[in-house]
Design a protein that fits this description.
The protein is mainly alpha-helical. The chain contains 23 helices and no strands. 72% of the residues lie in helices and 0% in strands. Helix 6 (109-128) runs antiparallel to helix 9 (198-204). It is globular, with a radius of gyration of 23 Å. The model is unreliable at 1-16 and 504-510 (pLDDT under 50). It binds beta-D-glucopyranose.
Amino acid sequence: MAPVGGFAVIGAGSDFKGKITVSVLITCIVAASSGLIFGYDIGISGGVTTMVPFLQKFFPSILRKAAEAKTNMYCVYDSQVLTSFTSSLYIAGLAASLVASRLATTLGRKNTMVLGGCTFLVGAAINGGAANIAMLILGRILLGFGVGFTNQATPVYLSEVAPPRWRGAFNTGFQFFIGIGVVAANCINYGTAKHSWGWRLSLGLAIVPAAIMTIGALLISDTPSSLVERGKLAQAKKSLAKVRGKGTDVEPELADLINSCAIAKAANQEPFVTIFERQYRPHLVMAVAIPFFQQVTGINIIAFYAPVLFQSVGFGSDSALIASIILGVVNLGSILVSTFVVDRYGRRFLFILGGIQMFVCQVAVACVLEATTGVSGTKHISKSYAILVLVLMCIYAAGFGWSWGPLSWLIPSEIFPMKIRPTGQSISVAVNFATTFVLSQTFLTILCHFKFGTFLFYAGWIAVMTIFVTFFLPETKGIPLDSMYTVWEQHWYWCRFVQKQPSQNLYDGN
Ligand code: BGC
């Protein structure tokens, strides 16, 4: 088959950055733990918004609606105020992620992560003690600022520190911690749901993951690239020596970083302007398309509202939470699969496999719901069909876990040249949050009106994104960050946009 989009560039870049050392492993695990706060929030909001004492205190109208027997099962939770509680975080996160690129450039990736952790911690405390909706929303805005900063800085941190040959595996760590956060939150919700003050504990306990990741981020050193960028050459050398391991000659790599940085600084351009140049069009398209597509897989519909969904399809409130714990664990296992596969078979293989898997599951869920609950959604689904929906959703979650989950953080963090890398990642996080916001704000209304058809809507998007990846996403596995331009130069479509770099091998003669 002609290599429409996927190929490997052999021989580009260096080999000296290929070793996995204990130090780089620990550093990356600690950095990836930033994913905890994002995951915790995702997991906690879905459960808390089904807790009766929480609804009684803040959203009593929803309970009144639920009590009206005639409402069809898709519409019980359709409330704009309830969704705005969930999605306010994303608007704040969007604003923060755009500011974060400047912070990550001037303060460094590590300090941006620390700042994110602290902001999230304050937000969690306010939410735990919330006495009214205003406090609840204020808390969520601070949580949003927190994840806006960490989601921007962490993937870039991981891609810059990881050995290129294993960059994919190291980067999946971020999604893995998001997954741990989700599962931890689901378990906590399960334990607290029985108490009238349970929601407070669930929301307030977010300070634990925030404290863990903030302390972790304080302990690691910044990435060599970021230190060079900020003129801290001695520290950059130390940081490089630490992650590359004892006995490694880090001088050539350091010289290379200094070189890339000097080129970037000489251009002295505003990165938010540079990124719109024609030669960066392929990068920009990916930075926008990948997070957009990740969201229209429908994952958050499953993640945020799994408990709601399971309850509406006939599980009791306890079993709804158990169901979402099961989903979370399956997702976690599949991220690990991705860790081992992503640098062997490549990103495209996983994207395409996961895409097909998710497509089939969404279509199947739609068919089961149509057949069992009727077109109007008023018939009650039987227990065995509810379990079938759960099984399908598990297969779906596994598909997401080894494809669009981790890879949507990885791709934007590895395709940009150093001078616009933080900007590219910022745009990507902003698109991710904006799309999540629109989807979560509209999902319950869409579900209420389109019923099982909602799942077909997402299936359609999954088909589009899988075709998009097949034709337009070049394979990036194993390519050092500073040789990444080669993948665009050799791509059948994108080659017409990029400016061919003079053939250079920065590592020759070292
Ligand atoms: C996505 C989130 C999603 C989570 C699920 C992340 O990669 O960006 O929107 O909720 O994965 O685990």
